[in-house]
Here is the input.
Amino acid sequence: MSNLPLTPDAVSEIVAIIDGSGYDRVDIKTDAFRLRLRREGGADNAAEGWTQDWSFAEAEAPAAADKVAPVEELPDGLLGIAAPLPGTFYRAPQPGAPAFVKEGDKVEKDTVVGIIETMKLMNPVHAGCTGTIEKVLVENSEMVDASATIMHVRPD
Amino acid sequence: MIKRLFIANRGEIALRIVRTAQRLGITTILGASQADATSLPGIQSDEVAIVGPAPSNQSYLDVDAVIAAAKAARADAIHPGYGFLSENARFAQAAADAGIIFVGPDISSLNAMGDKLMARKVGIEAGLPVVPGGEAADKEEALARAEETGFPVLLKAVSGGGGKGMRRVDRAEDLSAEIDAAMAEAQASFGDPRIYVERFIASGRHVEVQVLGDGEQAIHLGTRDCSIQRRFQKLVEEAPAPAMPDDKRAAIEDAAVRLTRHLNYRGAGTVEMLVDAESFDFYFLEMNARIQVEHPVTEAITGVDLIEQQILIADGNPLGIRQDDLSPTGHAIEVRINAEDPDAEFQPSPGTITRAAWPAGPGIRVDTHIATGGKVPPFYDSLIGKLIVHAATREEAVDKLAAALASMRIEGITTTANLHAKIAANAAFRKGGVDTRFFKEFAA
Here is the structure.
């Protein structure tokens, strides 16, 4: 762990100094970080202001692998229901309640087949196609990536 | 003396706390989930302790896991930030049992403000005005209350928050059905079906007062106006509350200090008031016994570092600031930049930030944990940063806000930045003093 090199106040001071100069960009790069300061707008854009753009060499290295639902090839003749967002997939509206759908159930385009919890919000997952649920590929409360296939549907 | 501070939170507030603690010479330990181990707060903190896997109920909300991690890290204090376990009395007690200082108020204060009805009762004891109404154990009582206060009324969940279980009822004949629905919603959301009845204030502003107390002395650091909300979620906050007569503002501040003294409150807190937008009559709602998301606007106008004050008070120091020491200057506005798509019903927009060019310069403060290449994981709330502007007058602050929003570039995900640019250009907002109906009308 290394600490960030400049405090927010220091960045403000640097911007105040270069604002009075003719420079429009400052690019500072070290082994640990890169800071790009840039004058935005001006000319036809009435708003003129500086931005700070930080990036870090060691930030966001791959974190411990989260469980991700398997992404399968779609078998011939079947349709897939894809996760609209990344998040935690739930098959039922609340713990202990019956699942929205089970294998063998008929679904219409707007049938709710599950919920994906993303950023504390519950987002309904719609079937998006008409047919019969052939297989549910994701366990309850499992993490899914966006566009991962959640269910197979046999079209009518 | 606090030497090793465990931060039981994530995101911008974790980074914010780390910065102040390090300035005070305190070693910081970030209690992070696996998803946040390499986040900016993790890089900035002196140490990282993993409290659990990504989902917050197995990490940031797991009292036993957080306390165990803090003990293992030999922390002598825990800062809970906001949200998560920050107002959880069981967590504060578990910290105390482990011999660790909880950077927050006494457990008695957490309990006193634990539910809305209790808060209301304590407010009345402290001599604060509350919205006419009261507890309604059953429908008959609810009807009687409603007839006392007059329609329309607002039904609220006793254990409520975030607008859930809150219902407006306009006519006596609708009351019975609405009570059933409100109780069911309250039970489902909070495990507590109790509701109470309040008079509905048609044009109200959400005004709150930042307070500090050391158990004996109490001071206020002025008002904040947080009337711009979407579904009871704050979007824009400013300090001081604009377009309000000085004597009315002073009365609100005095009431907040009275409550703080009544509670022998220790630490930083926020006293929330509902203010009638026309008469400026005010009613006490509740007290938030923690640091607030919007605390930087108060810091901007007072020059006080509220996190530092929290740490000093938790460490047993008497208040080092007297009311007379404070002379707030200028006007500050904060907007919350959320990873949400305002054009798609505020659907969350997690992902990887391909470019994060935040505004910079004098009078501009950005509290964020997101840099270029940063990730917004799907597990937590959608706040990716706060833009705070400070200027001599409100008019200048609004102009500065508009310019800053025009120059910032966040790419890779969708954010609420453009929505804020539209709010900053809105005539009613520019005039100041809008009520809580603003956003609904603005978005329509």
User: Anything to note?
Assistant: Chain B touches chain A through 52 residues (CB under 8 Å).
